[in-house]
Amino acid sequence: MKRLFLSSICAAILFSACNNSKEKSNENQDSVIVTGTEKVNATNTDTVKTTFNLDDIPVSTAELGEFPFFTTIEGTQFINDPKVKSFDFLYVALPDGSLVKKEGKVFRAFIQGNNANSKEEITTAAINKHFEDAITKAGGMLIHEGRWSESQINNYDELATYKGSDGTIDVYNNPVKTYVIHRNDGNIYIQLESKSDNAGTFQIVQESATK
Predict the structure, then answer these.
(1) By the 8 A CB rule, do 100 and 52 touch?
(2) What confidence score (pLDDT) does residue 33 get?
């Protein structure tokens, strides 16, 4: 009788321990929070970030015309007499949280509305929509959107020797969109800064053709 009683107690303790273990496991699973491109475990400081693989993006064969391929929306203009640089570099933000250097043909320009000569008032939203439609039509894909992280900004401060010149992005205060067009004649990276009112910044770099 005593043996049967002790066996019952052991079985109850084992059952309770298993249930507690399952509950803790479920709590850990429920604590995974998805934030943008990051998965953050609320019980762990480790961060798992989305990787970026250019090969996952279809190759574009769209006819693009001459570099820099895109014009700004009617009612705005590229200002400060921007010029194409036959070889230069840009630092672009990727979805994995990194900042990478892309070399090739470069164009950087500020965008400013010229509403005095336009029948309609141009907004920043209209500027963004104009470029998004044109880039998507050319086979481009949005790969990063929002404000840069502290580590990206720190790397930019250290490495982007062109910052402060015409057509550089205010990464400290404004959100930025990064697009890529995967092409055999040279991958194209585009960055578009959203400013207040009817202004923005457009940057583009085309890498050398794939061998």
Answers:
(1) no
(2) 26
CA distance 103 to 205: 7
DSSP 119: S
Contact 87, 104 (CB under 8 A): yes
User: How many CB atoms sit inside 10 A of residue 209's CB?
Assistant: 11
Q: Could you tell me which residues come within 8 angstroms of residue 131 by beta carbon, excluding any fewer than 6 positions away? A: 70, 72, 73, 190, 192, 202
Task: Name 67's Cβ contacts closer than 8 Å, sequence gap at least 6.
Answer: 84, 105, 107, 204, 206
Q: Which of 145, 116, 114 is nearest to 127 (CA)?
A: 114
CA–CA distance from 166 to each of 53, 80, 170, 198, 202 (Å)? 31, 7, 11, 17, 11
Give strand ranges (E) for the chain.
32-35, 38-41, 47-49, 76-79, 85-93, 99-113, 141-146, 176-181, 188-194, 199-206
Q: How far apart are CA 93 and CA 107, in angstroms?
A: 17
Residue 104 has pLDDT above 60, yes or no: yes
Is residue 60 a contact partner of residue 140, using CB atoms and an 8 Å limit?
A: yes
Cβ atoms of residues 57 and 141 within 8 Å: yes
Bridge pairing between strands 85-93 and 99-113: antiparallel
Coil, helix or strand for 77?
A: strand
pLDDT mean across residues, the chain: 81
Q: Where are the domains of the chain?
A: 21-50, 54-206
**Which helix (DSSP H) or strand (DSSP E) does residue 136 occupy?**
helix 124-137
Looking at residue 43, what is its pLDDT?
30
